[in-house]
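note to self — DONT lose this again. spent like an hour looking for the file last time. sequence + predicted structure for the chain T wanted, 605 res
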Amino acid sequence: MTDSFFPLRIEGAPDGAPDRPPPFSGLEAARSPGGIRWTFRTAARRVFGLGERFDAVDQKGRVVEAVVEEKFTEQGPLSYYPVPFFFTELGFSMEVEGSYPVVFDFGAAEADLFTVDIRCGDEEPPALVVRFGSPAALVASFVRSTGLPCLPPQWTLGPWISANRWNSRAILMEQVDRMEELGIPATVVVLEAWSDEGGFFAWNDGGLWPDPAGMIAELGRRGLRLVLWQVPVCKRLADCPEGAASEREGRALAEAEAEGYLVRRADGSVYAIPEGRWFGGSPIPDFTDPAACDWYFSKRRHLLDQGVAGFKTDGGEFVHDDSLRFHDGRTGRAMRSGYTASYLEAYGRFAGADRVLFSRAGWTGSGRWSLHWAGDQKSSWPELRAQLAAGLSAGLSGIAFWTFDIGGFAGALPDAELYLRSFAFAVFAPLMQWHSEPVYGQFADIMKGSGGINDRSPWNIGTATGDGRVVPACRALSRLRMALLPYLALCARRTVATGLPVMRHLVLDFPDDPRAAAVCDEYLLGDSLLVAPVVERGATGRSVYFPTGRWIDISDGTVLEGPCDGLVEAPPGTVPVFRRGDAKVSLDEAWIDGTTPRFLSGGEA
């Protein structure tokens, strides 16, 4: 350390065992062109955390930028939900407080030289927090310090169904009827194309959604909660529909500008999202202003009164000007990622504990308010593998309740093999949903063979591929998910109590096993189930690493004693899953119809 300008907080102390060298040395800070830069040296071989990461779980040897970024498909090193926190296998973690962009170098140039570059400019720098402990203790301590996750209601743990095409009550109920006809259960339906497409607070008034409250009640009688899509913009008038909706949005936008509820530049002018980006040209509300929040949510309170169970809080990656000034005094530099956090907190306080948020973007502590899905990926094998990496890295960063779009969100429809592999993986993810872009979306040029329907529903994929395995397999897998709800609810309660994720990289439970730290394609679901998704085209099974302990294959009762490796068969529509020792896995027996292995519930196989 050089002077008190560079705040540092150290919690705990390193393991003082005489045979272990210090985990790092030479921690120093200095001013840099972008703000301040911390440097130190370490022999660490693994780096975990850093938020949802699609390119790799272990970030050793890479340069990683922690800043919220919207990227449509093939995210690579970019992240909707970065977290400026990492830990290593040597028993230490580092966290940068606040919301400034941070660039980490984990030995890209020199293997043992790490840097933490905080891009705060000449603004007051945030603290660097150093902790010591086991991987699980480090993750749990970080989560407790930044806010334990919300406890989702049990109905959120069942299958979610969604498609951007569902733009009327008639289309929605047709899909619900089809789902029931095929015996495929679900617990949540998400509507994206429900609103006036202007301010996103009023139902489309073209006769497409008659009696919303009655529709929501009917869905409830059929076991479905309704979640509505939102995005934090005041859409510019040129992009609003003509007619009554445009007049309504014009009045709302004028009111927001006149009252000062919109984010402004340093010169006092209203900020608009840059052209060329999503919703380019549109202003955004300032959620750090309590009066702006009151105004904004007053227009949405009727949705709660109608029975809406939550909001799909999309977007938020909209701050691209360092000179912006927010009501609470923060600048655009601090709010590049902080805006997303303020947006989710405002929605969380509005929605209340009995409803849910389902979000794409986030920042440190956003799990207090929201469940999370992985954003937009193509229907491809590389993207499926990226989703697995994203889920594991999310869990290692305090993002507890996570999922992805089954079969991908965009592009040509997946074939039956890819879809079934993705579906089976999702059954054993913390949350489960399928969703798709509209057929006229960004990949419209390659969608000509879809017949105008891009839904990733089992029945549409079955029809489009002509593969008779799809619907029966998805029916059995969806019933298995429903049977697992009591176990998943127990996992959720434990997560909220401990701060450890539902989907856990093996390093958290087996910190002294180098093989476990190196495995980045299998995980524990809660305490009791080892899950090893198949994510390679043409595979009929895979190799699985079994850490120390007794593991029972739920498909045939085979017992394995770890540590060991094993080759496991897994045809499409299945996923290798193993029960840990004599662990109990509570099931909802009503959903067990011969497709669910009974010995999941414990005892001898």
